[in-house]
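pinging the channel bc i need a second pair of eyes. not urgent but kinda urgent?? the chain im working w is below, pasted from the shared doc
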Amino acid sequence: MNVPKLLEAATLLVPEEIATEKDITVRDVWEYLREDEWDTPLGLLEELGDIEPLPVSFWEILATAAEQMRLDRSAAWCHWCSYETRNGIIRADLTLRPASEAQRQTSFDGAGVLRPMWNIGNRTPSGEPGLNIARLWAEFIPFLEPGGRSSVRLAPLDPMKWQHLRPGHVITMHADRSVAGTAVILEIHRPQTPRGQ
């Protein structure tokens, strides 16, 4: 399917009454599509998708469109939102240890590439701290540097093991058994059923 058809299909999954803070609606997206613009409608649809839960298919369609447009970060974000629609949202305030105190000496891509281990309070059968894997998306910045701080979103490999967490809980990020950073849970939203499903 070509990009305009994908974007049109995505617009059909957005309720007409949803509007961004700047009063952008799906009607505005249609105007850009009539003008044969693709980047702007994609960005606007991503914004509209943040307002209320939309179906996984909405995010998958947008991811495919972004991939066809070779917008890698946008495609990664849409795949991320598809995951969050199915599994819920975990946001945290992460502070990394400085390079002088940590194994990591360089910055890393904040677009969901890194899959660190986390001590979230679980234990192994022998009573040792259990480390659980979750991908990390740094909000509002493309890269996170040693000693840096950012709000992040976490995508656990096994979401069931993370259900005990609540806002205010402190968890630690690990590259190995040593602590690479500390995060305070800001928000947890369980999966919500989008309208019409």
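so Helices lie at 3-11, 26-34, 39-49, 56-68, 72-87. and The longest strand covers residues 179-189. — does that match what u expected or am i reading it wrong
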